Structures are given as C-alpha cells and as structure tokens.
Amino acid sequence: MSGGDTPCWQEPVRKGPVRTVLVAAVALVDADGRVLLAQRPPGKSMAGLWEFPGGKVDAGETPEAALVRELKEELGIDTAESCLAPIAFASHTYETFHLLMPLYAARVWKGTPTPLEGQQLAWVKPVRMGDYPMPPADIPLIPILRDLL
Ligand SMILES: Nc1nc2c([nH]c(=O)n2[C@@H]2O[C@H](COP(=O)(O)OP(=O)(O)OP(=O)(O)O)[C@@H](O)[C@H]2O)c(=O)[nH]1
C-alpha cells in the first residue's frame, strides 16, 4: 500500500517536549438526539469556542470521577459513573500542551443542565455541529458523533 500522498501523512511540528494533559469530556444526549455544547466564556483560553462539558482530571482521580465532579460544578447535574459510556478520544497538540481527552456519552442524569460558570449552553444535533466553532482537538470527534448517535 502506498500512503505517502494521503492527507494524514504529516508529521506534527514539535517545538520541544510538551506535557500531556488529561481532560475528560462528555456528550450529554437528550431524547431528541441532541448533544449539549458549552461556550467557553470570555477571559478563558479559546474563549467563544463551543466544547463538550468536562475538565481536567486531577491527580489520583479517574476520568469518570472527574466528569461526575465537573458536571456537578459546571452544570449542577448528577451523573453516575456507570451511565458514562466511552465512545472516542481526542489527542491533539496545542501550543503549550498535548491534550488527551476521552469522550463519553451519557443519556441519563439527574437535574437540568444549568450554566453555573457563566457559559452559554446549546443543544445541538450532531449534523449541525459544524455551525458551532469548536476547539481544533474536537473537530475529528464530530463525524464520530454523527455516526454513533
Ligand atoms: N471540557 C473540554 N475541554 C476541552 C475540549 N476541547 C479542548 O480542546 N478542551 C481543552 O481542554 C482543557 C480543559 O480544561 P478545563 O476545562 O479543566 O479548564 P479551563 O477551561 O480553565 O482550562 P484553561 O487552563 O485552558 O483555562 C482546556 O484547555 C480546553 O480548551 C472539550 O470539548 N471540552
């Protein structure tokens, strides 16, 4: 097989060692198959971009426990680790770190997602996600969600 001309055949430009940051994220899916996206508020890195709820995994924490914690802090909802199904991951080198982000799907939670950290929320069909600018790491996840949901 000759793959030298394929678009994926590009080595990333490495400027030096980068630390890998583990971030857990979730696609909350409602009864209509829409996914909850949250817009990063002004003042944060990548402000204005739409992302999956979640956040950094603390030392000694599992990704699932981090998500349960973050969903309570960011959206005020209760989730159970057993309701988080791993579906994909993002692996992307940013300027200052490498992001490794497992993505889970959840259809069951308790409470109504509420923007507790000043973020805008939107329920979006996977086919419409192209209308919502997302961080570069998230772009490969969109077709996966489209296929899965
Ligand atoms: N939650 C979440 N974070 C994402 C996504 N895509 C993506 O690149 N990220 C990045 O993963 C990191 C998550 O960090 P965080 O949510 O715990 O904390 P933060 O926004 O305060 O991060 P910051 O340190 O960049 O300001 C951010 O750098 C964020 O930009 C995503 O879909 N969901």
TrEMBL record:
What PROSITE patterns does the database record attribute to this sequence?
Answer: NUDIX, NUDIX_BOX
Its Enzyme Commission number(s) read 3.6.1.55
Cofactor(s) required, per the database record = Mg(2+)
Tree of life domain:
Bacteria
What reaction does this catalyse? 8-oxo-dGTP + H2O = 8-oxo-dGMP + diphosphate + H(+); 8-oxo-GTP + H2O = 8-oxo-GMP + diphosphate + H(+)
The alphabetized list of GO BP terms reads: DNA repair; DNA replication
Question: Which keywords does the record carry?
Answer: DNA damage, DNA repair, DNA replication, Hydrolase, Magnesium, Metal-binding, Mutator protein
Q: Which organism is it from?
A: Niveispirillum cyanobacteriorum
* Pfam families xref list: NUDIX_4
For this entry, the protein name equals 8-oxo-dGTP diphosphatase
- What does the organism's lineage look like at the top? Bacteria, Pseudomonadati, Pseudomonadota, Alphaproteobacteria, Rhodospirillales
